[in-house]
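Known limitations

Files may contain more than one protein. Parsers should not assume a single record per file. Below, a two-record file is shown to illustrate correct handling: read the sequence, read the token line, then continue until end of file.
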Amino acid sequence: MNMRNKRAGFMAAVLSAILLLAGCSGGGDSKGASAGFHETGLPIVDKPISLTIAGTYDERTGTNWNELETIKEINEGTNVQIKWNLSPGTDWATKRNLIIASGDLPDVLLELSSSQVVTGGADGMFIPLENLIEKYAPNLTNFLNKYPEVRQAITAPDGHIYSLPMANMSEYKHADGNTLWINKEWLKKAGLEMPKTTEELTKALEAFKTMDMDGDGNPNNEIPLTGVFGDSQYGFGYLFGSFNTIDETFIVQDDKVVFVRATEEFKNTVKYLHSLYEKGLIDPDSMTQNSTQLIAKVSSGKKASVGAFFAWSADQITNADYRWDYGSPMIPLAGPDGSQITPRNNLQMTPGMFVITKVNPYPEATMRWVDRAYEPEMSMKLREGPNRLKKLADGTYDTIPNPDNYTAGEWKVKETPYNDFVYGFSQEMRDKQILPKAEPGQLDPDFDEWYEALVPYMKPWVYPNIMFTDAQYKSIEQYQTDIKTYTDKMEAQWIAKGGIDEEWNTYLETLNKMGLSDYTKVYQDGYDTNKANLAK
């Protein structure tokens, strides 16, 4: 090779190295550049690009997200095309785990646990997003500046942000999503008032069991109380407040982290639930059914067949012919010692809603595309449903009620992925809504009036939304599956069969052998670190 050819070969090698480094610098890879990426304005890219996004969906919305009004608006004019790979909610945890384990990644994954986000970020499976947010996500940046607690919730202990949130910062969301609804028409028939204590609830359920409440001539086919064991929304959690605790794995009292299922308060709650079960007042299916089966049970038939049930909302899941038979959710019941509490929950947030994986060839375009979901009005549409909103001349939004052929829940999610996609809904946008006023005796958890009614009973014991270190998550994984499986099994057994007093000491000894103290210490350390960081 002559000198000229050697020099040309050397220069070509240098140029190739420079191009390679430029492609890895995070400033826009060669694929993004070849698509004609724009940092501002529309289109986002000159040439159409396709992104594959895997996640889960609300069965009332369906899987055809590109036809939803909200997604159409986000996509419009961008030249970004989305291929949705969506799984039912009941299958998503398993499907998500298989995707991560196989390494066969889509461009974006939705709805991950915080541990999966931190571990995947540390392993390089998900890319850091903080620089992309700063450069290409002005809507999200404004939201995070308004709510620094959201930024904190999505920031991993290594300082990186690997995921984008779904966050509803409306104050009313501090109210618990698990409430108890009771058939007020059945109460009238039994000559009873709305229960105010656990003792009065028991008497009401006994009446529901023995009287022909639905008027069909058979006094034995009514269901006094039904729920879904272990479910945060449809489970028995509401009743824990009557025994001075909360149905959470860990709570925080005076800065001390407490494992609820090893407390006397937990034991007393379970004993009360067993007393109801033993008398035939709790539907036996409650121990095995899922939420879909519960909804079918409370909404089927021409007349109500269930006296009381646990849920967020009655009018969204019961039959339209008798939805208002259930009136309003019940204020926390006073327990035997007068305890009458409800949790002041963390605001509604999924920190790991949206991650960009390492195989995504267009991270800049992806960030610009998803930032459109955080535009305030779009976030409102994603949260409330665009078909339900009418913008008025003064900048407020009236609520369009559901047509007769839709339930309120179906109407709300008709044109939005709802809580299975990102948005940043603020109290400011909530204040712009003209919300339906509650009818007398018809409070609903979606009304601010219900939140205000609960405030006097709220306790700030819920463990905060934080991200642990990768090492801490690995420690949590070491203990949580076995401990949860064991405590779930024992709780269900004690509710159905009793025996908690006799077996309690053995139960505590078993938990200690399973590493409960070390498990609790991880949460205490995480809480202490988070509190120290907040004080900085």
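...continuing to the second record:
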Amino acid sequence: MLKSVRLRLLILALLPLIVLMPLLMVVAMARWNADYDKILIEKVESDLRIAEQYLGHLQSNSARALQGLAQSAEIADVLTRDPGLTPAFLEQSQDRLGLDFLYLLQGNELTDAKEKWPVIFQAAVGRMVSEIDILSASDLAALSPALAAEARIELIETEAAAPADHTVEDRGMVVHTAAPVRVNGEIRVLVGGILLNRNLDFIDTLNELVYLQGQYSDGRQGTATLFLSDTRVSTNVRLFEDVRALGTRVSAAVRDAVLGKGRTWLDSAFVVNDWYISGYLPISDSFGKRVGMLYVGFLEAPYETAKRAAYWTVVGAFVLVIALTAPLFLWLAKGIFAPLEQMTRTMARVERGDLTARNQTSARGDEIGQVANHLNTLLDQVQERDRRLRNWAGELNLRVEERTRELQVANAKLEETFRQLVMSEKLASIGEITAGVAHEINNPVAVIQGNVDVMRMTLGDAAEPVRTELDLIDNQVMRIGAIVGKLLQFARPSEFGTFAEHVDVAAVVRDCLVLVDHVISKQEVRVLTQFDAAPHVRIDPGELQQVVINIIINASQAMEGKGTLAISVAGEVRDAQTGVALRIADTGPGIPMERIDHIFDPFFTTKQGEGTGLGLSISQTLIQRAGGRITVRNRRARGAEFLIWLPEPTDADDPDQR
């Protein structure tokens, strides 16, 4: 308990530090990380715009140089005075302007070329144009075999790149410039260009311009690359220490985003052999088709290292704060421990039964002192209530004993009442049967009396002619005897003792059918019986008769004058115990579903004003007392079915076997 109190106080004191501060730290670091990454993305975006401007500046310079040459008097003089000097003049001008190719188009050549290249078409109509275009290997070879050889780059298998259908990139990406030349009213086109494949001067100048000599002030390296499609054709990214990564390819994700969808990529990307904060810009040719990418980026690793260092610095500071503040809080909480420990010891003594235990009166006026005094007051009240409870317990025991005796008397009266109810229900059944029996007796007696008179008046001792009448007299007398015998058997007073015996259920059912024949014969009720071989059961036959007669009469009344009563007896095993199943089914309307669960409740009846409502309740009690079960269900077709199951008696149940 002591450790628990101290731990809880420490947690309570340090909760703001160990929960809220880490939560705030996580939120702050996440926000700082997002802002830091945003700054890096903005930085690479700015670098990409500088690179884009430099590429545009290269195109503009090429266009201005070529336009200056096209408008110069020198070229007009050469073309007018001696056209044969034109090739030599163009070669000198190419070297002087820093172009990789320079040629003049006129006549049919101009007509063919302007259909092929939009820049030439624009120049042919008088406008100077400079665009990025892709020249095939054959186009480059036609200009210069050396130019075609310089443009040729072997592809290098690159991690995360899309599959390639070629192993060599022999096309050339050029700054394609065309300017109109007007001589004697005729327009010619001067075409020049700069090959960007392997153009290390271009890419290194671009890198120096963007990244200040290729390095940040803190030594973090920046890189720049020009892509033809997804292949690096000019780059300062290193494959090895002194080998540039020409022929390596960009990742499939970047290619799909930039070349496929035309988006500018500003995110982290894997470049050759490391992760870079990267910017990729799509490059379109004079046809408006995306043919390449311009890339700038810088290593991500130094920034990740810096972020991790910042994370660990914050975590270390947090741990240091916890280490310094935890002892302080424990020292401040120490004044709380002593009175709490005392209260704990006091409560432990009370738990052991010492109700005289009390806290020492505290001179402290704070909340803990008030709690200690209040606890003493409560213990005084508990001690007083314990004394009262002990006194009340003695009185309660006396009252319980008295109430127990009253309940025993009430229970005996209840059992006596139940026996009387059983007899009452049985007498009610006898009353119904007696009315029919009286009618059945009158008819045989009348027949007997009539035939006896005839015999005496007409035949005397000669009995042979009246054998039929004598036989009829015998049958009727036998019928009277059977009815009266079954009635006496049913009505014998067995309710006040145990008269259980081995009973053939089928035989009892047959006797019951004789007793209720007057009820069934008044209606169009067909009785179907099926009595299979079944073991005997142990029950008072009178009680079983009472149950069966009650169910048969109820079924007959439910069919309202017409129907079929099906009765079957068969052996059936339930819960691994052999027994006899008696099923009594009618074709009446069945039992409403809302009433079927209450059918065995005492005083529950569906015939208001015509019965006591105790017949089925008593029947259930009698069957359960014999160890059996009685259930009811509505048949799927029509009517209700009662099932009475009684167990086969064992040796332990049979007093004759003990």
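Parsers that stop after the first record will miss the second one. For reference, the second record is described as follows. Residues 213-220, 493-497 have pLDDT under 50 and may be disordered.
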